[in-house]
Structures are given as structure tokens and as C-alpha cells.
Amino acid sequence: MNFLKEIENLKEVKNAIILAHYYQPGEIQEIADYVGDSYYLSKIAQQSPAQFIVFCGVEFMVESAKILSPDKRVFWGNTDSNCKMVDEFHDEELIELMELHQDAAVVSYVNSSTRIKTMSYTCCTSSSAVPTVKSIENKKIIFVPDKNLGSYVAEQCPEKEIILGKGKCYVHDNVKAEEVLKLIELNPGALVLTHPECQKEVRDISDYIGSTGNILNYAIKSDKESFIIVTEMGITHILGKKCPEKKFYFPKMICGGMKRTTIEDVYRCLNYEENEILLPEDVIEKAALALSNMIRLGEKR
To answer: In this structure, are residues 149 and 85 in contact, taking their beta carbons and an 8 Å threshold?
Structure first.
């Protein structure tokens, strides 16, 4: 069977679009109608006239799309595509922080469970975290779950008291400064572009810190020719397409959860309508407040 041809036919018949995160396999990015980071894809899911969305990403992304577009049918490309940070940060940890700091506003990274979102004032992405926190009137902010992104926000918002969760993205947290320094030594003149989910020791030796989308834009616009990219290696695909003349070097950073989606998975979602995301209405309503605030605050930037 020619899955690619069938996918194109089914998209037309079902008024469907395919969304893929930058960390998805290259062949999935190639068949997607939109490729981007979580913030961009959240907006596309909400704004697109398509009524059938196949989302190739991890669970929290797919659920966020459903929450923002409750009247649309949203399908998860591969149900084994989980995020360890989301799975390992539990409601009880946030409830305890909220009880200890009752005057704090809760900002949850979009890389969080739907349940965590229902308890949050607003969500944020890595690209919107700093301006989001700055825009909130409360001096005290509970930031969950990513402790590394939270510590970066705290550095950029010294006027705020940031209470951190204990979560972490294993892909970014596992990178050590020593690995990056070795790449710098091997590739003199290369700029270091780093995701804020990395530890402080890595951020401190970087030339630029930004979300995956911002790293991509920086590399495209820069007049430099070589870069050390400190984020998940899936971004290699679009960097190679957008900047074929430039050189990119990576520490070994691979998110296994993001690599599970196949072309056949996408076909099965479209043809057999497998893996549809269904959430209770009350959960959608509560979580939608935080996600809508994320979009609203992001548009103010």
C-alpha cells in the first residue's frame, strides 16, 4: 500500500490536517501540514478551519489541542509517545506547593498533565515563560514542573519569587557542560544555541538561550556559519532544509517518546480513526482557562 498517497486522499476527504513537533522523525515532519514547537502548534490547532486533526507529538500536546478545540476531532499519532517529565510530576506535588504558598500564582509549563493545567492560572511554553511570569501581578509564582526552565525564568525575573517544581526533561537535563565544552573545542567559532530546559551550567556557557522555534529562527537569521545546537536532535531535519549551507553540531540528545510515530500510524488515525482524544467536559473547561491565558499573554508580546 502507498501510505503517502492514501494519507493525502484521506486528508482531503475528512478535512484533516497533520501537525508535527520539531522532534518528530523527519519522515513525519515531511508529511505534516504544519511543523513547529508546542506554542505554534497549539495556535494552529485552535485557528485552523480543519475539523479533523492528527497530532504527531507527545500526549500533553495532543490533549492541549483538544482542550483548545473541543468541537474538533483530535487524534494522537502514536499513543506510546509519552513525556517522562509529565508522567513523573504528580498532582500531589503541586497541591502541596499551593498549600504552602497560598498567595502565589501557579504557572505551569505546557509540558504538564491536563490535571496540572486545571490547577493553574496560566500555562506557558519555553518561548513565552519569561514574559508570562513578568505579566502576572503576583510577586510569588509557583512554576511547575520543569525546574531548569523555572530556574532560567527566575534568573530573568529577579523581581519575582519563584517556587520551583522538581520535574525535568531528561533529554535536556542529562547534557553536561563538559560535553558542550568539548564540542566548542572541536568546532572553534561555532555559536552555542541552548534550550532553557538545560541545566544552568550549560546555559551559562551558551551564546543564546531560547525555545526550539527561537533557536531555529536564530540560526536561520545569523550570519554565522556553524552552530552547536543544545536541544533534541529532531530539529536537524528542518535546520538542514532551511540552512543547507550551514553546519550544525549536537550533543547526543534524543527523545525516545517523540520518535515512535510512523507513517502507518498517521494513516491508521485517518483511515480507521484510531487514538481519538476524549476528555470530560469539566476538565476541558478548567484546563482551557490556563491554555487560553497562555495564548492571550503570548499575543501581547
So the answer is: no
